[in-house]
């Protein structure tokens, strides 16, 4: 959503204008919903439906809508459904009128252009700015900023798991938590300041060091909770922006074939020519509810290593492809190392897996799956010992000890419609393993599920809060160097930390509320 701060957006002035907008999607549809919010909502109703009483609050009524000024009477819609919600207990906190009109483009257009011609009374009637209904909800205390954040995520959710993560943020649980931390911090700061101001002439129950000791205990607990929120946010972020999977392996093992099979459409060219996939092809997909992106990378081989069966040195373009593949692997969340069975020309077979790729996976400590393609060219009895041997090698590689056994797959068999087995190419087994990894990466304990709703914006502000709290701890516990605790400075850090929390919810003394709103509504 692009948000342009309207000139009249200060809370006290908002109510003057009545805003309206098409709330359902543009284009031809059976029904279109037009929402009107503000003090002129009732007047607009009276202008459009002059002879009929206002429907009972929150009760749908069928009405004929007329043009407000044209004579003889011009019927805009002969049977619209009208709902009236009296403020302040409405979505925006103001009087709200909803018109469910026939969704033909001309009908919608005629109603939208008739609304501002209604008798407004005071204030203007104008089309809403993007996000303005939500902004009014915030200013009228109907939503706090954590809920506005979550609303943005709910509207943007494309997969089931994104929807679930967004729903977590819709409740008050997160904002109530931040509010209670903020109150604790402000209370602690107040006590410290009272101590500074009056300690000389009044008797206090606690000594300065006792008081600081109590506050540091509270702050330690908040810091612990912030760490949990950070973890929840990272996990939620994986659900929201998608899990990045890098598919790595030497040329010709079948990376493009596997990716194309998984994606279900031709995302990159399948070719037997080595090194075709020089650049990275990336596709986003919904995998059983999880948003993930697959990156099919350049044929991957270490410097100075030739392709199996070839002795061509690595060219500049291929080297660049490998560099990109390596950086893709570094920035991905999950790595699939793909190898393949190859024939030695006679009856012997071996498995080609790039050791460099395995090392890369081990160094980065990313969840890793090893799959061996082209199992169709060898009998199971010959394949099994090769797979077992490879598994032993992998388990002995530091960093890859816990890697599950390699999964033998065949893209050729998976595509062969004549094979009647449930999973002829073994690729379901591969996706099952991927999903198990997704679940482990994105789950939170039952009692901390709400933390999945912590958005990136909130995480950044929590990080700012954490830094101020750590600064507070450094001032309040200066160590053994004989330095006195600077309680004036310590109290100031508590105030900064509380301000960061205020920016999360938009409640309390937010120093620059318009800036905070701008960040949210820019989405
Ligand atoms: P990439 O270079 O790793 O992306 O490999 P490709 O997907 O381009 O495949 C290389 C060659 O292997 C192509 O000729 C594919 O048809 C072939 N191929 C892919 N998967 C299989 C498989 O499961 N079995 C067999 N026998 N050949 C395969």
TrEMBL record:
Residues 145-523 form the MnmE helical domain. Residues 244-374 form the G domain. Keywords: GTP-binding, Nucleotide-binding, tRNA processing. The keyword GTP-binding applies. Pfam families: MMR_HSR1, MnmE_helical, TrmE_N. InterPro entries: G_TrmE, GTP-bd, GTP-bd_TrmE_N, GTPase_MnmE, MnmE_dom2, MnmE_helical, P-loop_NTPase, Small_GTP-bd. SUPFAM superfamilies: P-loop containing nucleoside triphosphate hydrolases. The keyword Chloroplast does not apply. Coiled coil: none annotated. Residues 18-142 form the GTP-binding protein TrmE N-terminal domain. This is Related to GTPase MSS1, mitochondrial. The lineage of its organism: Eukaryota, Fungi, Dikarya, Ascomycota, Pezizomycotina.
């Amino acid at each position: 959503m692009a948000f342009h701060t309207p000139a009249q957006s200060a809370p006290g002035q908002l109510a003057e204008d009545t805003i309206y907008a098409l709330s359902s999607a543009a284009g031809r549809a059976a029904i279109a919903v037009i929402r009107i919010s503000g003090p002129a909502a009732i007047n607009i109703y009276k202008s459009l439906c002059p002879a009929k009483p206002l429907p009972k609050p929150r009760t749908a009524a069928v009405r004929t809508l007329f043009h407000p000024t044209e004579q003889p009477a011009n019927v805009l819609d002969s049977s619209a459904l009208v709902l009236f919600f009296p403020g302040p207990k409405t979505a925006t906190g103001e009087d709200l009128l909803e018109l469910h009109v026939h969704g033909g483009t001309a009908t919608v257009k005629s109603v939208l252009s008739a609304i501002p011609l209604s008798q407004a009374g005071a204030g203007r009637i104008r089309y809403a700015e993007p996000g303005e209904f939500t902004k009014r909800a915030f200013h009228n205390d109907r939503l706090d900023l954590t809920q506005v954040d979550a609303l943005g995520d709910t509207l943007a959710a494309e997969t089931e798991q994104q929807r679930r993560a967004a729903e977590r943020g819709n409740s008050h649980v997160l904002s109530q938590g931040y509010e209670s931390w903020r109150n604790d911090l402000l209370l602690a700061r107040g006590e410290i300041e009272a101590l500074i101001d009056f300690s000389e002439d009044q008797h206090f129950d606690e000594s300065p060091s006792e008081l600081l000791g109590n506050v540091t205990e509270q702050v330690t607990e908040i810091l612990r909770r912030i760490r949990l929120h950070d973890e929840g946010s990272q996990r939620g972020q994986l659900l929201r922006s998608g899990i990045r999977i890098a598919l790595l392996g030497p040329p010709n093992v079948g990376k493009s074939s596997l990716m194309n099979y998984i994606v279900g459409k031709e995302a990159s060219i399948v070719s037997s020519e080595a090194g075709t996939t020089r650049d990275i092809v990336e596709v986003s997909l919904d995998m059983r509810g999880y948003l993930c992106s697959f990156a099919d990378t350049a044929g991957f081989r270490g410097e100075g290593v030739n392709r199996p069966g070839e002795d061509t040195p690595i060219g500049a373009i291929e080297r660049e492809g490998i560099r990109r593949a390596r950086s893709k692997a570094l920035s991905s969340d999950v790595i699939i190392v793909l190898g393949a069975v190859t024939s030695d020309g006679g009856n012997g077979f071996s498995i080609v897996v790039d050791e460099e790729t395995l090392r890369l996976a081990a160094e980065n400590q990313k969840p890793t799956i090893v799959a061996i393609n082209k199992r169709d060219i060898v009998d199971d009895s010959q394949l099994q010992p090769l797979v077992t041997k490879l598994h032993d090698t992998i388990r002995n590689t530091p960093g890859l000890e816990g890697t599950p056994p390699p999964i033998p797959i065949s893209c050729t068999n998976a595509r062969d419609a004549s094979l009647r087995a449930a999973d002829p190419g073994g690729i379901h087994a591969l996706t099952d393993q991927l999903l198990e990894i997704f679940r482990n990466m994105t789950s939170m304990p039952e009692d901390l599920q709400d933390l999945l709703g912590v958005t990136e914006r909130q995480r950044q502000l929590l990080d700012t809060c954490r830094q101020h709290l750590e600064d507070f701890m450094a001032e309040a516990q200066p160590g053994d160097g004989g330095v006195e605790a600077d309680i004036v400075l310590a109290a100031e850090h508590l105030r900064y930390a509380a301000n960061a929390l205020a920016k999360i919810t938009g409640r309390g003394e937010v120093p620059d509320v318009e800036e905070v709103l701008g960040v949210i509504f820019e989405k």
